[in-house]
Amino acid sequence: MSLPALALLDVVWPRDALTYPPTWKMWACVSPRRLWFLRINTEGGAPGSVRLARADHPFLAHDSYLGCHGDLIEVDEETLRSALVAQARADRRGIIGKINPALRPTIREAIAQSSRLSGRQIAAIIAELDAADAA
Question: 100: domain CATH number?
């Protein structure tokens, strides 16, 4: 399987080896160039989570949350490819959807206020969001 051409806020559904126990988790790409992702969770109690309404995101089974507070996932191409290939359902192996672009300002604000991301990470993600808005 070739790695899909990721764009900002594209969503993939790999086997997430960084959770305990490892499980299938949706990730949203916040830096296609760096292969940085944030998890999408069904529970949004954490500060800095951005609500993703099911009505605006047809790939979701129910309202969920983008964890903008931290837990940045950084993978290399081979790790991402392997995680996507491990997905048993063919319809979940590549890009399964995209975060609604109307949420970019809310995501930008949540990222900017993160206490878990480094200043360098915040600046890089916000620069990619700004570039997408300028395009």
Answer: 2.30.30
